[in-house]
Design a protein that fits this description.
Length: 274
Amino acid sequence: MDWKNLNADVNKILNTHYTSGRSGRKINKIIIHYNAGDLTVEGCYSVWQNRPASAHYQVESSGRIGQLVWDSDTAWHASNWEANCSSIGIEHANKEGGYISEACLDAGAHLVAALCKYYGLGRPQWKVNVFPHNHFAATSCPGRLQDEQRDAYMQKAQQWYDQMMNGAESPSTPSTGNSNKKSSEEVAREVVAGKWGNGADRKNRLTSAGYNYDVVQAKVDEKLYGSKPGKSNEAIAKEVIAGNWGNGADRKARLTAAGYNYDAIQSIVNSLCK
Ligand SMILES: [Zn+2]
């Protein structure tokens, strides 16, 4: 799942039992459901071929997420036309006794956070921007997600939302599979931002986190030294330390005027001055 751009693990788009467009309404809420069964994305697709119902997303017990109706279209899930037009519907698979698995709970909550961020709905709040199906119709749906598992679900959704809004793309809580693993491009950006230390320390930390140091470092170098007028940032950093470029705002103004990347050079200066 690409949380930032809302690209699901799999797209299995229905060709029936939804309505094109949003009838002029804006998305202002998320409505959550449970399967009353342990379905896969493909299973939902098959059920909704015959039943006049649908939802935008299905979250499986494994945490795998599928998109079945595009967000820009109206899915038939809330038993209420107004609510359908103005919401995103998320279905969750459940195990025996209606319980939602940890992986499903976490992925569903993450999806809620990602949708709230993407559509500017604000921090996830129960019955403010995240609603249970039975808020709109007489139904037992969304089962445990409205009672025993509601708080855990909403806490996770808020935690994910806060992390996404802070720009951290990795959670502090454990999640399933390799979803925490970032691209070397993302990690290189973090290195440049100073999140991975310097020198041997950087190498140890990247390696123990499972990243290929050489690949990441190559991207970092590309970022820092990629487009430079004349001398390398490293060489300019040495001149800065030698006092050739002044201090503070004066240094920044002179380096910038000369076409150099002040932040990149200053970060090298800081590392060399340790
Ligand atoms: Zn429902």
